[in-house]
Known about the structure:
- The protein is of the alpha/beta class.
- The protein has 2 domains: 3-13 and 83-216, HAD superfamily/HAD-like (Rossmann fold), CATH 3.40.50.1000; 15-78.
- Helix content is 42%, strand content 11%.
- The chain has a 6-stranded parallel β-sheet with strand order 3-2-1-4-5-6, sandwiched between helices.
- α1 (15-27) crosses α4.
- The protein is globular, with a radius of gyration of 17 Å.
Amino acid sequence: MKAVVFDFDGLIIDTEFALYDAFCKLLKLDSDEFPICDYATYIGTDSKALHNFILGKANGTMTLEEVIEKSSLLHKENLMNPIARDGVEDYLKEAKKRGLKIGLASSSDRKWVIYFLEELSLLDYFDIIQSKDDVEMVKPDPTLYQNVINLFGLHPSEAIAFEDSANGAKAAVAAGLKCVIVPNKITENLIFENVHLRLNSMKEKKFSDVIQVIESLYV
Length: 219
């Protein structure tokens, strides 16, 4: 392996539960009235479909613009003190120590990603960042991952993707990368097809052990 490529939302920081909670507050619904399993299918891709889904839940009480504006404010309030998910920085440190190239492929916009990476003091770990600003189509389209790999000058088989969503995993696998799925409490019940390893968190298995497992698939 010569590179690792990380997703951002829900993998490095759990922005996804924070957004779910924001929508629950906005719609004045509890988890029984707004099941996570319904919400989770919209994770890891363009936010347009998600916002339209929420608009439908609002039953005409809000416009799309109000849904976007109000949920954004609540989301930011929920992320006032951001914390990286367990084991993320350990993996980044070990990847850097091993001399691996480190990339990031996110369906979110660059400003959002950079802001939180700076808040978490993780920005300097990344050699290449590709966001929705860099592509016409986001995940599950593979272009974000293809861009990172091409910019590294590598073959997809030389890189591992770390993802938390089904849409993200589809993008990574379609781009030819081996994919390690690390779901969060929003995505943990989704079906992940063709992934190569699943972890409950990055604390579950050492980075070196993950590399060993993935490399063994090529033997």
